[in-house]
Input
Amino acid sequence: MKIVLLRHGRPAVEHTARIHTRDIAHWVDRYNNADLDEESMPSPDTVAIARDCRHVVCSHLRRSLHSAELLQVDSVHLSHERFREAELPFIQRPGIHLSPETWVALLRILWLLGYARNGESLRQSKQRAALCAQDLVTLAQQHQSVLFVGHGFINRFIAQHLLRQGWQGPRSLRQDYWQHADYRLPEQA
Output
């Protein structure tokens, strides 16, 4: 049995222009609904790995679904909001302008330290990832191989759960777009 965790391609959304604190939620919404950048394409090897999987799962977010399209899979068998990326918290203080990249890095650090206002906590994200991991294991038992076109943090948390359940694969995942990692359950003697 095999589960492939793959991060989506690069979304086509502005990420360098500075935005105000009150605009973070709007930027995240645009990011969540963006198609992929036309120059963000999977490698032929990545397409081959994806097409080799019998069952495909995506989050409901556009970047996940559009990535599956570019991977040329026959169909997405399951797309659900449970598989979305870990939510960012929001700060609602006036007067601060930073680039979206800086905001995301800052808010992720705060989130990892326990700040979760207006979003999902780290604990809640990990609990949701445990449910996602169990869903993927069940699908792998039924179909032998599953591709999950996911996101950076949720993929990382799912991988932690798979490793705890005895699956073998990388302990840390690269965070680049289109990066993937295979997890296999050792054969029972």
Notes: The CA atoms of residues 8 and 64 lie 5 Å apart. The chain has six helices and seven strands.
